[in-house]
Every structure is written in C-alpha cells, then in structure tokens.
Amino acid sequence: MRRFAVGILATLFLLAAGPAFAESDATTVFRVSGMTCGMCAKAIERALGDVPGVQSVEIDRDSGRVEVVAASTLDAGTLEAAIEAAGSYEAELEPEKG
Questions:
Q1: pLDDT tops 80 at residue 37
Q2: Considering only CA atoms, which of 60, 49, 56 is closest in space to residue 26?
Q3: Is 79 exposed, middle or buried (0-12, 13-18, 19+ CB in 10 A)?
C-alpha cells in the first residue's frame, strides 16, 4: 500500500509541475535589423510571446540581439517568422558559439 501511495504522490507532483517536466527548453538567439525604438522591441516581444511554447524573450535593441527561450520542439523558423511579421524587421539566426 505504501508503494501505491508514493506512486500516486509522484504522479500528482509531475502533473502539478506541468510542462517543465514534459519537454526541455532551448535558447535561440537572433540578430534583428530594423529595430529603431522601444516600440519596435515591444512589438517583437509581443509577437514572440504569442507563439505557443515561448517561455521568455530578452531584447537588446542597441545590439539587435533577441534571445528566446522556448520549448525545444519549437522550430527556429517559426520564431523568425514571428519576428519578421511584427514589422519591417529582418531576423537572422545567430551562429552558436563553440
């Protein structure tokens, strides 16, 4: 009976934890040209935030760097399309270092 109770508790914990245990996240970095103001950055942040699976977005407008943390199953092309659909922006995947 004790094993059964422990199994139930473990299952409930995993269900409560949600997607964090279901899939891993990956960080994708883009260089984006065409961001000229804070509203540009906000439009890109909003567009990426609307993509299912995106966990967080960090934007450095001065360097044009956009860092997206999203479900590892999410394709970089989907993120790039969301950035470019937000306005007159051109996004390019930043090469991985190392």
A1: yes
A2: 56
A3: buried
